[in-house]
Amino acid sequence: MNLALVCDRELLVESDIFTDAWRRLVVDLEACLGTVARITHRLAADEPADFILIMSVTDIPTLLRPYPAATRAALATRLVPLMEAQSRAEILDDLVEPLDLPAAIDDLSLAEWCIGSRAGFFGRRDLCMPATSPFTSERYCYVRSPSPAALPAMLAHYLRTLHSARA
Predict the structure, then answer these.
(1) Which of 44, 79, 150, 160: disulfide with 145, CB 3.0–4.6 Å?
(2) Residue 152, CB half-sphere, CA atoms under 13 Å: how many?
(3) Whether the Cβ atoms of residue 40 and residue 153 lie closer than 8 Å to each other
């Protein structure tokens, strides 16, 4: 499975607690998947990766807007936003569900993971056990890891399962 990381140039050189934590999560995910993400600074329609982790100061709909509808849809099904400053309800209702994203991780989950709490991500309900959470929709749910350290491994397992289901 091929992985890419699209990261705004200023975020790559920035060093704050959240940026460093996102980097650590990506490194742990790479280790769990046995791959190294190709790093790029902008989203491209011809990106060959199966999944595209994306850290951007620009919101996902705005990043997708310049592309034709079919390209937007194809790209969205591979995007896994690592995002800040949205509520979990907004992520579910305004992003993951309408764009048909494979998964999304919010900054609250990142913070929970960093302090050693059980953290999670948004994923498809048909591929994972939904958490007891108000953050569920017809097709998506918020999935909480069974232990604090399990988040990268759980996300890796989920992405492998999704990749296999698509093959």
Answers:
(1) 150
(2) 17
(3) no
Tell me if residue 15 falls in helix, strand or coil.
Answer: coil
Q: Give the tokens for residue 92.
A: 């579910």
CA dihedral 57, 62, 68, 70 (to 10 degrees): 80
Torsion of CA 89, 91, 92, 93, to 10 degrees: 80
What one-character DSSP code corresponds to residue 150? G
Q: If DSSP codes are grouped into helix, strand and coil, which group holds residue 38?
A: strand
Q: What angle do CA 42, 162, 158 make, to 5 degrees?
A: 90
Please give the structure tokens belonging to residue 101. Answer: 């994203």
- Per residue in 49-97, pLDDT (tens digit) is 999 998 877 788 999 999 999 999 999 999 999 876 668 888 888 888 9
